[in-house]
Amino acid sequence: MGYGDYLMLSGQVRELKMFPQFKVVCPEVEQTGFFRDIFRGNPNISLAREIDQNTPCIQLPRVEVGVPDEVNSKLVWKPHFQAIRGDLFLADDEIDFARTALGKINPHNKKVVVVNPFAKSEQAFTDGSVKAYTHHVNKEWPTERYAALIAAMPDCLFIRPTAGPTTRPFLANVHDIVSDYRQACALIHLADIYLGCEGGLHHAAAALQKPAVVIFGGWISPLTTGYGFHDNLFIGAPDSACGSLSVCSHCDAAMETITVDAVAARLALALGI
User: Fold this and answer.
1) Once rounded to an integer, what is the mean pLDDT over residues 19-31?
2) Could you write out the DSSP letters of every residue in 153-208?
3) Per the CATH hierarchy, to which homologous superfamily does domain 92-271 belong?
4) From CA 227, how far away is CA 83, in angstroms rounded?
5) 196 Rama class: left (phi>0) / alpha (psi -120 to 50) / beta
6) Mind listing the pLDDT tens digit for each residue in 44-64?
7) Distance between CA atoms of 245 and 136, rounded to whole angstroms?
8) Distances from the Cα of 72 to the Cαs of 5, 58, 81, 244, 252, in angstroms?
9) Cβ distance 89 to 40 under 8 Å?
10) In angstroms, how far is CA 193 from the centroid of its own chain?
């Protein structure tokens, strides 16, 4: 589970408002930080505990795009699932945070690129436990290619939202901005484009209707969790997306196929430079 699952859920919530006689609730996830971060300020969803038992309502579970196959250590993607653009309702203080942070580092008004090079490597649960993921590397484009890309685009300002000192180190010429998830979304809101891996921040870019170059590689297809108004780099046929929960040579080969020139060209086209 992750922020992306709940952002896709927020899109489903919006679509259900075509039935205004119903309240929409997600009781399964109401007590999670994900719910509070994604649905804060969202007028399309109600809290189950605040609804009279006689009020007609629609209950939604969290979105799951894959089914675990424990024997083969993989996720089997649901064949007919397609992400619906979610919603984010940012608060003034969150936007002010992003505006202040960018104002300090962008005096020349360069094009701002929010870069997210790393996928989630662990998941914390409400009981205090933490689950580590090894397959995060299957979703990550090589750091040395990001370095070459950034060096080739000096007229852009590259920033990275981070959780603080525990965040994996990246590149010295990328500005790290310590932020929580919603503040990171505000940075995307004020930036020109998102660049990086498939995950919670690429779903945020979609929810905020921002352009993006999303490096999918070969682990999951953009037909499952991508958006048509983004530029999605995926290698292979849709059914080749492996969903491996182990370090995967197929995914590594897919990322190797995506060149610096290809990403730079797509980024420049999207930015109009």
Assistant:
1) 89
2) -TTEEEEEEE-STTSPP--TTSEEEE--HHHHHHHHHHSSEEEEESSHHHHHHHHT
3) Glycogen Phosphorylase B; (3.40.50.2000)
4) 7
5) left
6) 999 988 888 888 999 998 899
7) 8
8) 23, 35, 21, 8, 18
9) yes
10) 13
Q: Return the closest-CA partner of residue 12 out of 50, 45, 40.
A: 45
**Amino acid letter at 79?**
P
Q: How many residues are given for the chain? A: 273
Euclidean distance between CA atoms 135 and 144, whole angstroms:
19
- Amino acid identity for residue 156 in this structure: C
Tens digit of pLDDT for each residue in 235-269?
999 899 999 999 999 999 999 999 999 999 999 99
At 40, the pLDDT band (50, 70, 90 cuts) reads very high
Closest CA to 93 of 201, 218, 180, 207: 180
Complete DSSP assignment for 84-124: --------HHHHHHHHHHHHHH-TT-PEEEEEE-----EEE
- Residue 13 · residue 60 · CB < 8 Å: yes
Structure tokens at 14: 């919006």
Backbone conformation region of residue 109, classed left if phi is above 0, alpha if psi is from -120 to 50, else beta: left
